[in-house]
Amino acid sequence: MLHAAKHLMTETDALTLGESEVEVSFVGRSNAGKSSLINALCEKTKMAHVSQVPGKTRTINVYEIRPYRWIVDLPGYGFAAGSRSEKAALGPMIETYLTSREHLCRVFVILDAVAGPTKLDILMINWLIHNAYPFNIIVNKIDKVGPSGLEARKKEITGKLALQPADIFWVSSKKNIEIETLRKVIAKLLGV
User: Fold this and answer.
1) Among candidate residues 14, 24, 68, 36, the one with its CA nearest the CA of residue 176
2) Residue-by-residue pLDDT tens, the chain, 192 positions
3) Nearest to 90 by CA among 122, 55, 115, 129
4) How far apart are CA 141 and CA 33, in angstroms?
5) Which of 18, 93, 164, 175 supports an S-S bond with 143, CB 3.0-4.6 Å?
């Protein structure tokens, strides 16, 4: 399915990406684990660069599953290493991508299970709702919460987002928890 993924391109301008037949994108705050999650979904260890420094992804990274079928990793928002001007450019870069992609079929918003939804996550979710973009929420790093605290954490997060636990993918890219379920959903969206 997704294991055929390869890095296709890295861009800073969404308008230079060219056309896909279908694509899904991953967006989330810095350090929510987007790159690790993409690696786990595609069964790779180092395809998407995983940094120890939050906010290291400052570009749009495109991974091709099959010709013109893409997974797109967007820059992290929130805390980010870098200059003020670099940080200021991330919001417009993400928005330009989202508003310009004709074949974008789903946006996956990645939340950190420990941090929960931040103000910026809620702004992103509300923006997606307001603009009628199809999206799903993925809560990553559930291994850091632990089995005993997970139910309480689910209630807390779903309460903040006014959702049901079944509306959210609860995963751990590190421990491979529910990755296969998510992988199947993405493969179906991409038609692979």
Assistant:
1) 36
2) 899 999 999 998 999 999 999 999 999 998 899 999 999 999 998 898 775 544 445 789 999 999 999 999 998 887 544 545 444 545 788 999 999 999 999 999 999 999 999 988 998 999 999 999 999 999 999 999 988 899 999 999 999 999 888 899 999 999 999 999 999 999 999 999
3) 55
4) 8
5) 175
Tokens of 17: 């990406």
Give bridge partners of residue 138 from the DSSP assignment.
110, 169
pTM of the model: 0.91
Q: Which residue in this structure is represented by tokens 């599953």?
A: 65
Instruction: Find all residues with CB under 8 Å of 181, minimum gap 6, and list them.
Output: 169
Per domain, the residue ranges of the chain are 2-190
Q: Which CATH architecture has domain 2-190?
A: 3-Layer(aba) Sandwich (3.40)
Residue with tokens 């299970």: 113
